[in-house]
Structures are given as structure tokens and as C-alpha cells.
Amino acid sequence: MLIRPFQPADAPALAALFHASVRQGGSRDYSAAQVAAWSPAPPDPAKYIRQATGRVFFVAVNEVAEPVGYGVLEPSGHIDHLYCRPDVIGTGIGGALCAELENAARKSGMRLLFTEASEAARRLFARRGFTVERRNDFIINGVAIHNYRMSKPLCPAPGILPA
Length: 163
Fold this sequence. Notes:
Elements (H helix, E strand, L loop, with lengths): L1 E4 L5 H15 L6 H7 L7 H7 L3 E6 L5 E7 L4 E7 L8 H15 L4 E6 L1 H9 L3 E10 L2 E11 L10
Helix pairs in contact: 1-3
């Protein structure tokens, strides 16, 4: 596996990956109605190209250069997306992407990472030192669903002094 920056040509594969991850991976913790509301169809690939602007956007690729996961970090320290293809969930790719996002955050001087994590992502983020701040209950596409606000304070990277 290789983790590299997002390339616009990745967009169609990432849209399909997101949809499959929600539909298949999400079904372990959420009802069929919930995953259908969360991702009724693959998103427009152009969304990924727009997301890349001003954000840290990493893609994990396998030995034949197919995207198998991705993560997006906003300048505020918000991890907006962290998804893996269903066939690689639980193999360490999500953790490796999270580590890369954390390293990028430290290098840029961020002091806090935060996210809204699904049930499965909550377990991954907890293993990486994030703590649950609260459960978020909300309605999406007419269906009740939940996630968790989680955060992790960061120490500055070596050689970077706090402001």
C-alpha cells in the first residue's frame, strides 16, 4: 500500500469507494434504512475535486494503483472523510491514513483534530487516541441516524514552537 496526495483522476473511484464503504461497511452498525439515507447513490465525482482545494487529501492505493481508502483534513483540524473500500476495512489502511493526516496536522501546527465518526470509525479513532465528546443524533434524508463528535489534542511537531 502507498499513501499519496489526491489526484483528480481518483475522483470517480473515490465516489464509488465512499458509496460501497457506507453501504457495506456501514451495514455492520447501522440499519439498511440508515445506510440508504446516508448514501442513497454514489456522490458526484466532481465533489472530490472541489474538496481537494485548501485541504490535505490523501489516497491509499494498492499494488496495482487502485484507490483503497482516502482521508481529508480541513485547515481547522476537522477530519472530514476517512473511508476505506469494504474489502480492506480492518486491515490497517484506515489507521495508516489517519496517521498521515495527524502528521500533516502536526507539521502545519494544528493543536487539535476533531471529527464526526460513525460507529466503526469511532472504534478506529479511539484506538488512535481520540475521545468521544458527545453523541450526535440527527435526521438525514428523513431517517434518524447518529455519529460521535471526537477529538484529539496534538503536540507540535519537533522543532515547531507553539505560538
